[in-house]
Specification:
Strand order of the largest sheet: 6-5-4-7-8-9
Largest sheet: 6 strands, parallel
Radius of gyration: 24 Å
Shape: globular
Oligomer: single chain
Distance between the termini: 24 Å
Structural class: alpha/beta
Helix content: 40-55%
Length: 670
């Protein structure tokens, strides 16, 4: 790395030497910053007036007429939110508290100051996000192994991906069965997930850029395993454990690496190996794509294993005929959140509708007969709306239950994994029964739908372009000024989906290509950005010419949230061709409306790779000048990337453009 990252005598002892050295008892007055930030929060009325999706507007008004609350009502009811929580200086870790930091009381009962409390809260957030994606990883990796062993009655569909990945991991493939290769590969991923003793982290060794591995080793932030780092994060952030905010942030970085390679990259590799990479395809999206007269089934969450069998059975002649016997035209599947995104480019006729905050709006159409919830990003309030329209809700995992829902599920130990087909059959039949029982329920579907193109990946891009060369040449020449991966959830602290769209508009006008996945992709899907027709109205001349030549839309949709791996695969491939490390390239991540704990890890993941992350929502660190400075400035020297926040999405987009111009100038590409 040489002069690229400044180091002190011993980085391992102190990764964050650059900080303000003020007396910890001299608490910074954060109140004005919190007050100014809170003034940017929209009301529900602001959302109704300014949301970019007219279907959202109509459903908000419809629910208001029916007297049904949604997350936007509840956000209004929560105002004003707690100053101490917004600043990150409320500590509830032990039962001597809760403690909050003020000028009058600059330390908690145990002696923790604002810097320590804020750092501990951030560490616990990234640990929680790592556990959430890690749970997803565990199930998919085990599904791959169980399918290979014959315990799970599913075929291995991604054989080419599995063999190519196994070879890259130095797993012997010649003359071996696909099942034996799958078992060996799954065991490598499982070892990285849960080993208790320090050893080489194989996913990092084989999947991370060598330049980055050198950086992480010198910073001493290479993880032991995903389980270990989450375990350690909860340990050293506990009451009366680690008292050094700098060491807490060291573990923050280490846990961030476990998030990337032990809960995201491994999930993506296992999913593509078992269920296939998927293909570029087109489908209709948004609430207007709901169909009357069908057995309408929505899948919601993150787990693809059972859903794959539910969709297969639902598309079978047996089930379609049974649905028709009950008066339906057929069976139609819809996707909410990442389960829907994972399914839509692997199976025909799965229509993506919305991200989690929109779930209540979709239910309020009255069009859905069955709602299948697996894990994560499932608001408990969906049960209230489902009850109003007699929509049956089924939960399928022991880690996520909803009061009033039916539970047709894998058990806690997955001892019934071999009964996957039987479980799926019960669920599809339950949807047909619900359709029959719901006859006469009023249905209101706003007439807004659009065609979107989906299923981009490293494989599809290199196949469709012949190689990465045309894209690399376009970036070097300036025809394309850079690439941004727009990801993340949504947040009621911003006008619903407005920031995502505004940032995208600025970037496309300035010839910056967009890749998207996860919840942030829904407004881009719904509003036509993933459609080639948007080239004429959204793009600058250089980007327009490239996309027209290669028949691609302005925004490349690569899948669910863990499919960030596909985005970084594209970016890494381009950086390698251009002969520069990722951190020097005009690439970035933006999660404009990030809101949950997984979002902390996702943004940190890109900064660990040396890229900036850009946001319209502030982290809850106002109470610590040191931690805020660490996130927004100090990681530039340590990692090459920083966190940039501006609550004005247009200004944020313009900042990305300006930063890319500086990077291009440094590369001699101006």
């Amino acid at each position: 790395m040489g002069n690229e990252i400044h180091r002190h005598a011993d980085v391992r002892e102190n990764v964050i030497e650059h900080s303000h050295h003020h007396d910890p008892n001299d608490v910074t007055d954060y109140m004005e910053a919190v007050k100014a930030y809170r003034a940017t929060f929209p009301t529900k009325q602001d959302v109704i007036e300014k949301t970019p999706d007219p279907a959202v507007r109509e459903m908000l008004l419809r629910m208001e007429q029916l007297g049904i609350d949604n997350s936007f009502d509840r956000f209004d009811q929560q105002q004003p939110q707690c100053n101490f929580g917004l600043a990150g200086i409320c500590c509830r870790i032990c039962h001597m508290g809760p403690c909050r930091i003020t000028q009058k009381s600059p330390r908690g009962v145990c002696g923790a100051d604002a810097d320590l409390i804020v750092a501990r809260n951030m560490l616990r957030a990234v640990a929680a996000g790592t556990a959430q994606h890690g749970m997803h990883a565990r199930e998919v990796i085990l599904s791959l192994k169980w399918a290979a062993e014959g315990k799970l009655p599913l075929p291995i569909l991604g054989k080419e991906k599995l063999i190519a990945t196994a070879k890259s991991f130095d797993i012997e493939t010649a003359g071996r069965s696909i099942n034996d290769i799958a078992i060996d590969f799954a065991n490598v991923l499982l070892a990285d997930l849960c080993r208790p003793e320090a050893d080489e982290y194989k996913v990092i060794r084989y999947a991370a850029p060598p330049e980055r591995q050198k950086v992480w080793k010198e910073l001493d932030i290479l993880p032991i395993s995903t389980y270990h780092e989450v375990f350690e994060a909860l340990h050293n952030s506990g009451e009366a454990c680690d008292g050094d905010w700098r060491n807490i942030m060291q573990q923050f970085l280490r846990t961030g690496l476990a998030f990337v390679f032990g809960s995201v990259v491994n999930t993506n590799l296992a999913t593509d190996s078992l269920f296939g990479v998927g293909e570029r395809r087109k489908c209709m999206v948004n609430i207007g794509a709901l169909k009357k007269g069908y057995v309408n089934i929505a899948v919601h969450g993150h787990m693809p294993t059972l859903v794959s069998e539910i969709v297969r059975l639902g598309h079978s002649r047996e089930m379609i005929d049974l649905a028709k016997e009950k008066g339906a035209k057929g069976i139609q599947f819809y996707g909410i959140c990442c389960t829907g995104l994972s399914a839509m480019y692997r199976y025909d006729h799965v229509i993506p509708l919305c991200n989690p905050p929109g779930a209540e709006l979709v239910l309020a159409t009255g069009a859905l007969d069955l709602w299948i919830a697996d894990v994560q990003d499932i608001y408990p309030a969906i049960m209230d709306v489902a009850k109003c329209f007699k929509t049956t809700v089924v939960t399928t995992e022991d880690s996520t239950k909803l009061p009033g829902a039916e539970h047709i599920a894998y058990d806690h130990t997955h001892s019934n994994i071999g009964e996957t087909t039987e479980i799926a059959r019960k669920i599809v039949l339950r949807g047909i029964e619900s359709f029959e029982a719901r006859q006469g329920i009023p249905v209101f579907i706003p007439p807004y739908e659009v065609e979107a193109e989906l299923g981009f990946s490293v494989e599809s891009v290199t196949r469709d372009l012949g190689s990465f060369e045309p894209l690399a040449e376009a970036v070097k020449s300036g025809q394309i000024q850079g690439i941004v991966n727009i990801v993340g959830c949504t947040n009621p602290k911003t006008v619903y989906e407005r920031c995502i769209v505004d940032v995208a508009d600025v970037l496309l006008r300035n010839n910056i290509l967009l890749i998207t996945n996860g919840c942030a992709s829904f407004p881009l899907l719904k509003l036509g950005y993933c459609n080639q027709e948007a080239i004429e109205t959204k793009c600058g001349e250089g980007l327009k010419a490239f996309l027209k030549e290669h028949k691609m839309p302005p925004v490349w949709h690569v899948g669910e949230c863990v499919d960030n791996t596909r985005s970084t695969g594209i970016l890494s491939g381009l950086a390698g061709l251009c002969g520069h490390p990722l951190k020097d390239m005009p690439f970035a991540q933006s999660s404009p409306e990030w809101g949950n704990e997984k979002g902390v890890g996702a943004a940190l993941a890109f900064r660990l790779l040396g890229l900036n992350s850009y946001h319209c929502v502030e982290p809850q660190t106002f109470g610590s000048e040191k931690v805020t400075k660490f996130l927004k400035e100090d990681t530039k020297e340590l990692l090459g990337g920083v966190m940039v926040v501006n609550t004005d999405p247009v200004a944020l987009g313009e900042q990305i453009v300006a930063d890319f111009r500086e990077k291009r100038k440094a590369l001699g590409w101006d």
